[in-house]
Amino acid sequence: MKKILLVEDExxxxxxxxxxxxxxxxxxxxxxxxKEGLALAKKEKPDLILLxxxxxxxxxxxxxxxxxxxxxxxxxxxxxxxxxxxxxTKKQALDLGAKGYLIKTNYTPSEIIEKIKMYLNAENx
Amino acid sequence: MYTFDYxxxxxxxxxxxxxxxxxIGFWTYLSNRKNKLNQVFFIFSxxxxxxxxxxxxxNLPGISHRLSLLLVRLxxxxxxxxxxxxxxxxxxxIQEYKKYWFLDRFIIFAGTAxxxxxxxxxxxxxxxxxxxxxxxxxxxxxxxxxxxxxxxLIFPIVWLLLTNYFNLSPxxxxxxxxxxxxxxxxxxxNSIFNIFFPLWKDSLKYYPLGxxxxxxxxxxxxxxxxxxxxxxxxxxxxxxxxxxxxxSLLLDIFVFTPQLLIQxxxxxxxxxxxxxxxxxxxNIIGEIKRREELERITGELEVANVKLDSAYKSxxxxxxxxxxxxxxxxxQLKTPLTAIKGYTSMVLEGSYGKLPxxxxxxxxxxxxxxxxxxxxxxxxxxxxxxxSGKIELDIQETPIxxxxxxxxxxxxxxxxxxxxYLKWDPKKQLPRVMADKDKIREVIFNIIDNAIKYTNQGxxxxxxxxxxxxxxxxxxxxxxxxxxxxxGKIFMSFSRGGAGNQFYTEGVGLGLYxxxxxxxxxxxxxxxxxxxxxxxxxxxxxxxxx
Lengths: 125, 546
Prior knowledge:
The structure holds two protein chains of two kinds.
Chain A: E1 3-7, H1 11-23, E2 27-31, H2 34-44, E3 48-51, H3 60-69, E4 78-82, H4 87-95, E5 100-103, H5 109-124
Parallel strand pairs in A: 1-2, 1-3, 3-4, 4-5
Chain B: H1 6-31, H2 36-58, H3 65-93, H4 101-120, E1 125-130, E2 135-139, H5 142-165, H6 170-201, H7 207-212, H8 214-226, H9 233-256, H10 260-349, H11 357-387, E3 395-398, H12 400-418, E4 421-425, E5 433-436, H13 437-453, E6 459-466, E7 470-477, H14 484-489, H15 511-521, E8 525-530, E9 537-544
Parallel strand pairs in B: 4-6
Antiparallel strand pairs in B: 1-2, 3-5, 6-7, 7-9, 8-9
């Protein structure tokens, strides 16, 4: 079973994606803060991180920067995932190695699952 | 030689000078009664006038020898006394109120002493001699003492002026310059008529003329004190030059020119000269005024510039705040919309149990509404960014032939519901266009979406064309078509076209407006053609390949 780390601070959305991901057969770890996320990533070594950008305290960009510094988890694929449609932030995330920058409202949860599966397949091959 | 009555001329001149001098002095006093400067000036101008008028008195017919002698002595004594107020005047002018305790007392003492020496002793003026032109003084040994002490009175004053000159502001310096010119003329003319002429002509006949120059000292000083805006030195010196030349010419006419005809001729030259002199001075004044005006305007411009700069900075801050607000607001709006879209899609998919058939349509409507809202928020965000010029194009190789099928897949369901076809018919391989992929996708999507809304039968065919340096996408529908008027308005914001009132009532007409702006940013063209109402429309997107 693939492990997905979900970093999302909006409770209502977190529950929705967690429920969907679990139904799709993934093991979901849910955190609401960047710092928690980094600690969990180190501990559980997820196969993919679904990262919200606008988080309380440190934001997703800072999470990515910290992730890349830690060699143990630096290679974990990250998909940035936010309603913040800002070209500058998108570029930053992609420059920091994010596999994609998805705008949440553009996809239904099922479409998100498809995207995740696509990214995971790309990782494996 | 034109003989004229020297004595008579003298009497008239004295009269004029006295009136003028007293008038100017009094006028100066009136202009600022409280100011000590003006008060002291009035006092020393009285002394000067007195000094000038003495020759008139001691030349009066029928006056006794003794009285005349006393008046002559008094005249020279008054000169000495005059230096006392003049010294204090200069002190006030350079605004030195406190220092020079010793000098103050020396001036007062020396002036008074010299006055007494000249008036009450016979060492200076021994006697007077009656000439045919008037009274002439006979000097004794006291003359050396007299001139010595006069010099000792003049030098400190000049020294005071010079040493403090550089501490003065430019305006005060200009005032001092005026006074110095008056003083210079006074001393110059006095020296000429009191010293030079007597030596040359061996007669003191012309010395009163020297005294008349007191009017220059009074005039210039008064002008300097009273006027707030003095003409620059250039004007004054030019005026003096013109004046001197004019006087010389005048003198030449009256003294050295016997023939009347030549006098008239020279008179004409004088008049012409005066006219040009006047023009010259007017010109200089005009130039100075223009320069001052320029300086004033420059000053105002600088002030305006500073204000503009700060206003611009405020505007920049405001604009930035507005952009941030819009970005954050649209983000905040999207969060609950994500939940609505997400959960309803999951309900429709059966993630929460089988959905009763009856509930399907209502939930679908909720889902569609969420989609509409999301599109609206996206469009408003794009619009706001377009309006503030904040759009950046992320240029990359854009494979149009991949984007279009993707869009058609997205819109397939909607077309199916309306029973219209969506056909993608690429004639040739489209060249790779360098463009912002997301924006071009939105452009094509908006146009096809719009075509679907306005087509109820038949369908939509999308084809492509290639030219020399452009790629063209053609979207033809069999829908409602547009009148010429509507064609003109279709790409304007918030317009729906006439057909909109009947068929398509969803949404605000932003899609095509944004599509046009995006295409414009790519330096491409987008337009529509239609043969008329009910005859379908064709949209063209032309993008440069480079």
